[in-house]
Amino acid sequence: MTAPETEFSRLLASWRRGEDGASDQLFSLVYEQLRELAHRQVGGRSSGETLRTTALVHEAYLKLVRSGSRVNDRHHFYALAARAMRQILVDHARGRAAVKRGGGLWITTLDDEQVADPHAQDVLALDEALERLARLDERLGRLVELRYFAGLSIEETAAVLTLSPATVKRDWRTARAFLFDALHPSAGE
Amino acid sequence: MKTTGRQDLSRRALALFQRAVELPRAAREAWLRAQCAAEPELRRQVEALAAADERAGDFLAAPAAEQLGPWFGETGGGQADASWDGRRLGSYRIVRELGHGGMGTVFLAERVDGQFDQQVALKVVRQGFFGDDLRRRFVRERQILALLQHPNIARLLDGGVSPEGLPYFVMELVAGTPITAFCDRHALGPGQRLQLFQGVCAAVQHAHRSLVVHRDLKPSNILVTAASEVKLLDFGIAKLLGEQAAEGLTRTAPPLTPAYAAPEQLRAEPVTTATDVYALGVVLYELLAGRLPAALSGDGRGGELAPALARAAAGWEPPRPSAVAEPAGGTAAAGADPRARRRRRRRLRGDLDTIVMTALRHAPERRYASADALAEDLRLHLAGLPIRARPDTPGYRLGKFVQRHRLAVAATALFLAALLAAMAFAGWQAREKGREARRAEAEAQTAGEVTGFVMSLFEGSDPSHTRGDAVTARELLDEAARRIHGELAGQPVVRARLLHTLATIYASLGLFDRARPLAAEALALRRASVAAGDPQIADSLEQLGTILVQQADYRAAGPLLREALALRRRAAGRQAALPLAASLECLANLLHKTGDLAGAEALYGQALAVTRRGARGAAGELGVAQLLSELAVNTQDRGRYGAAAGLYAQALEIRERVLGDTHPAVAATLSDFGSDLVYLGRYDEAAAKLGKALALREKVLGPDHPDVGFTRLALADLDDTRGNYDAAEREVGEALAIFRRSLGEGHRQVTECMNFLAALEYRRDDLAGAEALFRQVVPRTAAALGDEHPDTLSSKGNLAMTLRYEGQLAEAERLLRETLAARRRRLGDQHIDVAQNLENLGGLLVRTGRAAEAVPLAQAAVAIYRRALGPVHAQAAIALRELGVAEAAAGMDAGAEAHVGEAMAILRRLHADADPRFVRIPLAYGAVLLGRGRLAEAEPILRRALTAIEADRGVSRWVLAEAQLLLGSCLEQRGERAPAAALLRAGRSSMRAQPALVGELLPQARAALRGTG
User: What is the pTM of this model?
Assistant: First the structure.
């Protein structure tokens, strides 16, 4: 009976009022919506073509928030969507990594899954490093979610975080260096 | 707390780094030292961040899901689908799931019958459903793929469609690692990577030889086993699925993997073997440079479709591997050591850059012609030999040239600079060294280098295929030709050599008008400055002679080529066999063109003998094959189609053995061979050869290549001969479209297609349509080749014959007299074109009541044919018939009977007396017998002719009417009233509809038309 868009607006309002549980409900709503869109986007294609994250997030936004809503709503949505995308990927990576550990064998396939498989490990490692980064600097953590998981541009990220693009650029470089160092520590340590 | 302390430190390190990145690099160091004065750990952390920042490359540049998209295609979110376990598909039972991806699921399976203890990979494609049609095609194609057997290709064992309509494949189970990951994991050096990669090329080449294109080569389809064996997966499957996906939409499916897709794939243009060569180039790039070619472009999202499309549209070519390479190794060590990077980049610079960039060229036809050619260059490189591919820019090569000679070159045009530098150098060297012998040696050496250098710039500029792409080079060439006259006035030998070189280049570009004066000047210079027997004179004679042959100036060419041959013969004792063979070949080609087919045959035979005796190795064999195919064409023209077929078969055998069976020269031989079989009436074999040639050329050269057009024309010829005019017209239409696209509207080949179409209209009795087309063809041919070129004269002759049957006799006669005079001037009195012309003019004279005038013309035609083609030739038979008909009309009855009878005897010897193409010969013979009252002899001949005509859609309606009238008249005289009346009625009614052609009928048929009935 409740269409997703009204549901989202209602939950968002509740969340703003500080109601218990609204945040979790909002998150799972966005999560489900993105997952469904992702499946549909890839499912309708003939091969393992790549997913257009940004388009996905924007489409979810249109479905959940609708145009005419307040700018703030949009920013909240993106922040949520970024986290949801991260969660979706991490969930998938867990499943993936498990499969790979079980098999340990590269096998004949029809698509890129062998290429994707190492990414499963990478995503999990990245997720952990990102947790550490967020503990050091929460803003950098959110920024990585928006840039990397939601695929937002520098300008879009700046708008969501209400920062200048220059700051976002600098922060992004810093976060990236931190994560790269965490995942590929240089020799001699 | 310790953790908090550490966290605090890391937090400070982040903050410091954030500020440090905003400082100029030079100031950073001092600033950091000041900030971390007493805290080495803090400093270490900031430095680690700075190092990571430098190494990060395109880390995280593409959003996460873009690389991981395929995951989302699955149902069940990464959970194995247990419902398939134990299911049976075909003769296989699924054991368990091995993995799944966006396109489907891969299972471990085994044979139901337990016949072989073999575990296999069974892939179920979850993509669309197969209808009955697709299902049938799928099974058929799958059978082709199953024939692909190669140790480096994972076998496709079986396949089919599941009851619910999901296609599945059963494959050899391969335990391996993607080639890129394998090389990195084992830290293989470039040499080892190249060796591994050669195995990949060999497998791809094998598949191409079976005309299977992979279309989706990428590391995940190229696995390496623990035993370091390469295994290619999914050969041809992309096409199978792509066609299914694209059914009813376009002919090409969208590319599967943008990062490895060739530009033509991204543009949804037809895919050829060159597409796989491109993908091989991408994989090689990745193996050597450690990254994808597109990784540095734009926003760094190398794998995405949209940027890939933009790159394809913009004609983007990647940076050279040496410009971006990072040394291989585990991710942890990647790129850390600048010395390793420099070493790696140095290793790639030069040959390997060239090889990779040649494979990655934008235009498919400019890439390596095959995976083999790519592998061969890798082999040469590994062996330390010069590779065959040439870098794209003349600048590079000029650089090398100048480097070698330490000569300052200052000119705007690189090509010109190179040429002039060489000229200046030659002069300088000659002056410095002074002594005569050394001077000659220096000249020869330098000029040889100039020739090689300049020639190589124009490699592959085949005149029939070039379409003004060489414009810039041509401008430079013109400039060089202009300036050559002012330079080197005192150096006739060098100047002659450069003139010779320029002439060769102009000729290779098809610019014979420009080549001719240069070649002539070179010849004159050489005659004046070198010893009389010097082979350089023969070189020049042959060059000029060949140019003249190209311009159809056969009279001028003859003496030059004969003189050259005499010189070569005199020098033969001391010389290699090849120049003599080449000289024989030049003259043979001339004789062939001038219609002296017997003379040409003798010379080809000598050239073959010389080549077989004197030339060794692959080059010698290929020389033999070339001569065999030229001799075959000549033999074909002599009407000895069976002998020609034997020669083609020999040439084909050599070329297939030496060049491999996908080489363009093999396709060319197949195509010519097929045309010959058409003449032999071996239509099914012809269709097979031509079909193979077409498939090969489309695969190897692409569907828009002019050579594909030529094979289509040969197929049209086959259809035309078989009377399938609609099919012929379609093929010619396709060929015409190809030539228009690839060669341009003004190209001669376009005109020739129009000529063919006109001939088809003519045969279908659409004379008005034929006339309209021929009237376009004549001026187009004249403009391209000149008013008196044999082809211009042929099209004029065609127009004349069309006009004749339309009843426009005066204009037809005028044209035939014009062409006869021109042919005699141009080709001499004994050319078969002259014979044809005489025969046609003779026929026209008979038609207009001047039979006595026609008789000597027909006699001359018969004599020429007999001389040129031998006594037993269909052309001679046709001319004998014309002669007999003329004699009959002139009242020379004895001659008439003898000559038409002779024509009939030739046809019988050729087993062609029921051939619809020559049916007017038995009709004429029957008519002669009829006129003499020999009804019993006439009847079976006329009956047979009528049957042949009725069985063939290609014979004009008035010829059918002629046969009906003749047989009707014969039967009437024999008293068989009823059948006679039916035939006569049919013939008369037919001729009432085409009154202009009544005059074409034989006198006996005309009498029957007017007859009493």
Answer: 0.45
